[in-house]
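Hey all, quick one. A colleague (J.T.) asked me to put the cobalt (II) ion job into the tracker so the inputs and the structure tokens live in one place instead of scattered across chat threads. No bug as far as I know, just bookkeeping. Sequence used:
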Amino acid sequence: MTDYERYKELSKKIADIYHASALLQWDQETYMPPKSAPTRAQQLSTLAGIGHELSVDESFGELISNLVSDDSLSEIEKRNIVQSKKDYDKSLKYTTEFVKEMSETVSAAFQAWQKAKAENNFSLFAPKLEKLVALKRKECELIGYDEHPYDALLDEFEPGAKTSTIETVFENIKPKLISLLDKISGANQNNDSFMFKHYPKDKQWDFGIDLLKQMNYDFDAGRQDISTHPFTTSFSSNDVRVTTRINENDVSEMIWSCIHEGGHGLYEQGLKSSEYGLPSGSYLSLSIHESQSRLWENNVGRSLPYWKKNYPLAQEYFSEQLVGVSAKDFYKGMNVVKSSLIRTSADELTYHFHVMIRFEIEKSLIEGSIEVRDLPTVWNAKYKEYMGITVPNDEQGVLQDIHWSHGSFGYFPTYSLGSFYAAQFFAQAKKEIPELNTKIENGELLPLLNWLRDKIHQHGKTYTSDELCTMVTGETLNSDYFLKYAEEKYGNLYGIK
Ligand code: CO
């Protein structure tokens, strides 16, 4: 066996442990009975410890170091080694004790958050979150950073991203978005009341499955289930699970979560199964992951061509609810722009303010300029400032997202970056795929999927986000594509000149 083959074997073994742990987490959020919680936390912590021990194993490190200077490797193999070396060096900064402590703290925080949210009582979550934030601050120091401690956390989700870069992106887009929103609020408003009629659960479920099938999500390599927070998880490219949620009084929740998670699922299913466990078989970053879900959700799913095909199907399922509503009305209704409390049900424009608020709060929390006990006050003040709305309670405010209970600080900005990447990629796809809009109108979504597979999915993590974006579109991330898309689309929708 060559050194590279041994490296592949060890990498697969590490991946097996992490994917087994991901399966337990999937179960925890879908089917696990409540009494199992403490034992499950212990099982996850044990696996996190084993995974960490394997990934910092000295002989694995030596193997990677030897391979760094191996000229016989192919270009992709070399890129895998460079990435694995980076991951190995980073793993060495954590002790097994720290990893297990983090895993246990996260499990406890997640349980506390669920209870706090159900009972609308932030104080039930606060002590666990305080411990978690203290550990996160410690993690920043362990990993190290050049400019801002938050950079260390961003790196986990968006390798190489800097707090300052994200600030620049947000500062660029903020005034332009505010100006567009002002014009929209001054225009005639569109009606979306038919979205909030009673839509039976079983019919919504069937409709969602139809939409996933049309996207070419592979049900022989995945499945959909119900969870409180929709998510996608993968145990290999041949087993990629998505979840959705169904609100009988708002059909849009199911539609957007199905298409969104379906987009994530297609990315994972498009990774090369022969590269399992290696960087070349893993997703690039969360921004790129989110670019895939947003492209399907927003650029495809919230477009008129998409509903020319799918609105008749919606009418078959929901003939009573949609009586007197045309495809155009439906399109207008699903794209109503309005400041709101809940991030996950926000329109695609005000969405970015939800993200900016969380980014600012996380940054302050990690640098220590605010504390956990200040969170509800700071949260509510920012919603007033950015959105002009009063948060009625913590359940709909600071407790709404799962992320902090998972210890995922540095995650939120990737949502906005993902939308901006999506707009840029989609603009390129339109240039390269003949008659893309007509194809979407006919429900032919395979040419778009094949383009994404070819340009993005198949590369896994062998390039940086900047490199990939340049390969696909000829330049690095440029949020002007998103603005152009938004101004055109919403200009038409609201009759703005
Ligand atoms: Co997503």
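Adding what we noticed when we looked at it: Residues 260, 264, 290, 293 surround cobalt (II) ion (CB under 6 Å). The chain has two domains: 3-144, 163-494.
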